[in-house]
Amino acid sequence: MKGIILAGGNGTRLDPLTRAVSKHLLPVYDKPMVYYPLATLMLAGIQEYLLISTPSDLPAYQRLLGDGSQFGIHIHYAEQSQPRGIAEALIIAERWLAGQPVALILGDNIFHGQGLRQLLNEIRERHMTQEGATIFAYEVAEPSRYGVVVLNEHGAPETIVEKPQTPISNLAVPGLYFFDQRAAGFAQKLMPSARGELEITDVNRRYLEKRCLNVVPLGRGIAWFDAGTTDALLDVTHYMA
Q1: Residue 102: which of 68, 131, 136, 140 has the closest Cα?
Q2: In the prediction, which pLDDT does 9 show?
Q3: How far is residue 138's CA from residue 125's CA, in Å, rounded to a whole number?
Q4: Are residues 108 and 23 in contact, defined by beta-carbon separation less than 8 angstroms?
Q5: How far apart are CA 58 and CA 193, in angstroms?
Q6: Whose CA is closest to 184, among 107, 89, 105?
Q7: Does residue 167 carry a pLDDT above 80?
Q8: By the 8 A CB rule, do 68 and 74 touch?
C-alpha cells in the first residue's frame, strides 16, 4: 500500500496567515502541520508516499521533508496546479500508484489517540488482500461543514452527502481514506460538483453503490481535528501542547 498526502489548496480559511506560507506548513505546537498526517500514515506501516501540493509550495516541502530517508521512508512529490478537489489527487497519483491500494490523507487533518496504530495497521493489512474502501465516522457539532455519512442500525453505511445544508447525520467523514486499486479509475469518471471540484464523497459513493464501503466509527479515545480554520488550529495546538 502507498500513501498520498494532499497539501494543496489556497488556505483561504486561514487568510492572511496563508498569504506567505502553505497552510500545511503552519506550526501546530512544536511541529509543522504536515508532520501529523505523515505520522498517521507511518503508524499504518506505509513506506512509500506521494506529497501533492501547489507548484509554488512544493520546494518548501522538499526542503522540509527531503526524500523521507531521515524518517525511514520514501517521499515523492507531484503538483496540483489548481485546487480542483480531493479526488483529483487520485488522478494525479494514478501512474505512481501502479495499481496498488492507497491511503489518502489531507494535510490539515490530525488524528491522535489510544489504539490508533493497531487500528490503522489492521485496515492496511485488510486492504492488501481485499477489495473495497474504508472511511471513518466522527461525531461533530457542525456537520454541515463536512461530508457526512448515515449508518443503519447495523452500523453499515446507507448514504453519504457532501456538506448538506440540512444535516442528515452528525457523523462527519474525516480526511483519511483507504482505497483499493480502483479508486483512481473511479475518480477519472467524476464530473465536477456545483463547487467546481472533484469530490472525494463521490468516490466513496461509488464504493457504497458497489456494497464494498466499510465505515469505522472513531469513538472516545481518538481525537480528530480539521485544522483548516483559526479556531481549529488554536484548539489542536493546545491539545498537542
Answers
A1: 131
A2: 85
A3: 22
A4: yes
A5: 27
A6: 89
A7: no
A8: yes
> Which residues, in sequence order, are bridge partners of residue 171?
139
* Residues paired with residue 49 on neighbouring β-strands, in sequence order: 3, 75
| pLDDT score of 171 more than 90 | yes
Q: Look at residues 103, 119, 136, 110 and name the one whose alpha carbon lies nearest to residue 213.
A: 136
Residue 71, all three cell numbers: 524518517
Q: What stretches of the chain adopt beta strand conformation (E)?
A: 2-6, 27-28, 31-32, 48-53, 74-79, 102-106, 109-113, 133-139, 147-151, 157-162, 171-172, 176-179, 213-217, 222-226
Nearby residues of 126 by Cβ (< 8 Å), 6 or more positions away? 134
User: What's the CA gap between 26 and 18, in Å, rounded?
Assistant: 8
pLDDT tops 90 at residue 74: yes
Strands 171-172 and 2-6 turn out to be: unpaired
Query: Alpha-carbon distance 53 to 116, whole Å?
Result: 26
**Is the dihedral angle over the CA atoms 159, 225, 49, 195 positive or is it negative?**
positive
Ramachandran area for residue 66 (φ above 0: left; ψ -120 to 50: alpha; else beta): left
pTM: 0.96
